[in-house]
Amino acid sequence: IEVCMRKLVFYPEVVGFIEEEKDQFPSLKVQYVFNSPPKLVMLDNDGQYKETIRIDNWKREHLRRFLTEKNILKAESVHSQRSIFPSISENPNLTTSQLSRNYATATGSKETKETKVKLPLSLFGGAGNYASALYISAVKAKVLEKVESEIVDLVGASKKSPLFSQFIHDVSVPSSTRVKAINDICSAAKFSEITKNFLVVLAENGRLRNIDSIIQKFVELTMAHRGEVKAVVTTVIPLPAGEEKELKETLQDLIGEGKTVSLVQKIDPNILGGLVVEFDKKVFDMSIRTRARQMERFLREPVNFDSI
């Protein structure tokens, strides 16, 4: 949904939907753009633009029905989805040790009754399923911080080593070679069993090449677990320390008590100036690039001389 925050007062139905029903549609984002009427900007699965739909006169039930028909549905729990780790979806009561040894089948050992782990966020897609399974196993084993540290360090190392990065992303490497290499790496680094077996599953399933997106989702879960909200601010040049502090305090006031803002700066000369702030599925676009595009669209619109 793209809309100007100042104009929201004129669209109570849109406001009601954003405040009370938006969270039912995890892939839906709200972007506040200066002087923009309320509209739906539809993207395909690759994030590419498809179409724009004006929703000035839509009621909230129209929005809900339209998004439901477009299959922009609320993500199901990882236990009710067809999980990429079948053991979790087929038997949610498997013990952590069973999950860490083999995510595909039960080991046959006696099951124990465990408290179900509630996900702090509903994720969807392949990366979301993998991340959710890792989070559940790490929480049950009480090694969430250790697993996060290990997995983030591994991704960081892959970015620093071209050879390791090539190995991870090369789909022509045989599965047995990938598994042996991952086992050797994890043993040398003294990774936990949860981390090691998770990486082995990725290697066996040919998903190591997707590790960046999987870990990004996993970090979203761990941040939500700690009550942290990630805010990404995009500018042309780095923000001075004073302005960064002021922005963080403003975002903290918007988010409210009980959560902590984790501010990440991103540099993008293409926005030309101003800034773009993204947090909690909201986008505040105050860039010069967006304003220039709005002006261009305005100038291209045909003039109705009858109204002059």
From TrEMBL:
<dbReference type="Pfam" id="PF08806">
    <property type="entry name" value="Sep15_SelM"/>
</dbReference>
<feature type="domain" description="Selenoprotein F/M">
    <location>
        <begin position="1"/>
        <end position="70"/>
    </location>
</feature>
<keyword id="KW-0375">Hydrogen ion transport</keyword>
<comment type="similarity">
    <text>Belongs to the ATPase delta chain family.</text>
</comment>
<keyword id="KW-0472">Membrane</keyword>
<dbReference type="InterPro" id="IPR036249">
    <property type="entry name" value="Thioredoxin-like_sf"/>
</dbReference>
<dbReference type="GO" id="GO:0016020">
    <property type="term" value="C:membrane"/>
</dbReference>
<dbReference type="InterPro" id="IPR014912">
    <property type="entry name" value="Sep15_SelM_dom"/>
</dbReference>
<protein>
    <submittedName>
        <fullName>Atp synthase subunit delta</fullName>
    </submittedName>
</protein>
<dbReference type="InterPro" id="IPR000711">
    <property type="entry name" value="ATPase_OSCP/dsu"/>
</dbReference>
<dbReference type="InterPro" id="IPR038219">
    <property type="entry name" value="Sep15/SelM_sf"/>
</dbReference>
<dbReference type="InterPro" id="IPR026015">
    <property type="entry name" value="ATP_synth_OSCP/delta_N_sf"/>
</dbReference>
<dbReference type="GO" id="GO:0046933">
    <property type="term" value="F:proton-transporting ATP synthase activity, rotational mechanism"/>
</dbReference>
<keyword id="KW-0406">Ion transport</keyword>
<dbReference type="Pfam" id="PF00213">
    <property type="entry name" value="OSCP"/>
</dbReference>
<comment type="similarity">
    <text>Belongs to the selenoprotein M/F family.</text>
</comment>
<keyword id="KW-0813">Transport</keyword>
<keyword id="KW-0066">ATP synthesis</keyword>
